[in-house]
Amino acid sequence: MSRFFADKPATPQRASNSVTNSSRVYALLTIVLGAIGAIPLILLTPPFQVPDEIQHFFRAYEISEFRIHAQAQNGVGGDAIPKSMIQLSTSLTPLPNGDISYHLPPSPLRTTLSHLSTPLQAGDMAFARFPGSAYYSPIAYLPQALGIAVARALGLGPLYLFYFGRLFNCLCAIMLVAWAVYRMPFAKEIVIIVGFLPMSLYLFASLSADASVISCALLFTAISISAQSRGEWNRSDLIVLSVTGAIFCSLKPVYAPLLVAGLIPGLFRRSEAPRIIRAQLTILSISLGATAAWLIGTKSAMTLPHSGANPPLQMLFIASHPAALVRAIAHTIFPARLLYFFIGSIGLLGWADVILQPILVYALPVLSFALVWLLGPNLKARLTVLQSLWYLILVILSGLLVMTALYVTWCRVGQNMIEGIQGRYFIPTLALAGIAVLRWAPNWGQKEGKWVALTGLIGIILIQVAAKDLTVIQAFGLFSPG
Questions:
Q1: 95: CB partners within 8 A, 6+ apart
Q2: Which of 170, 251, 259, 412 has the fewest CB atoms within 10 Å around its CB?
Q3: Residue 249 CA: distances (Å) to CA of 111, 236, 330, 440
């Protein structure tokens, strides 16, 4: 096994083979750990106990029938959905007004599975509201929609459709993360740490479009850094980068800064600059062009949020009072809120109301990074200071865009603090941030350091997975008397 991690193979050919073998080992480990960490949650997490999962379910079903654009009825985005699906959502998340539920009382698994016998009755339809996902690009729902289509073809009921959608979404996310790990030219451990955060795994095992956003952002980061390190942007890389960029940008344009991660330092090298500029223009034009086209085409399904916000008036307010936005951001990032964002990025499960137990689990990803910092690869020869600073600038810019977007779409006009921010919104940029910070790690020169770091990382991830699963079982009373 140690030959896969040899630092200095004897010949160039052996070096190439060693890198390839090492990448395969990492990718295989990623698939195995992903399966262990995410697939059980498909059943363990009660239906609709992931943020906005009801809305993702309805949107994915709509797309499974090749209905790409949602409709608007009485000023609310949605579409016609089988009544059995609507009844399933209300029976499993009961509220007097029929609205979307948050944290449930004990939800035994046997009670949930008793709904498996309910038939779909696809011809009996009613309009269902899903304004939070109605304008989301359909490409992020292809795995869920495919799973739902397969279940429909098998004549299965609405709960089967739900679980099939989760399964396909989960498998796709795991494979994309494994691909990212395979393509990452160095510090693959950073991709693993971010991809296997408890929050990431929780989202992977759901119908949430966040699974596509996170996994595509990780793959984009890995291939962008790979092409940059080679100084070569081949056609296949540009295709993958453009497609993944279009996926995460069309859902969350706030991650657009990731698109130009490969711009520096090649822009300042005369021999590389033309090639870099062409590659970046290709990625930007396709990714942002697809995003703009989708947003314009789906304008009719966009409706005002239910939080009392008024985006048009808020944008006019910002234009005339730009300092107000700066003050709102400053009031938002005080230490207590930063701690909340950190906890949320590691794992606030359910509707951001289930805390991982024991609380020490929140320190484990930090410990994982510390292992890589101390024993992982020396990136000083791989990344320039300028690259590291550029990555950090892009991460910060993306974070500011997240806050600005929520200020516009979620907060009251002129509000002095930004509400609605969750730590999970920062996960797609964490790999780029980790690589940037790792550039400043000391080189301890331990020959087998990478192997030791990977072994420790595997152990920590397995502990995180066990803690996460036990937290879900206990929080939702999955095996309590039903």
A1: 101
A2: 412
A3: 39, 20, 26, 30
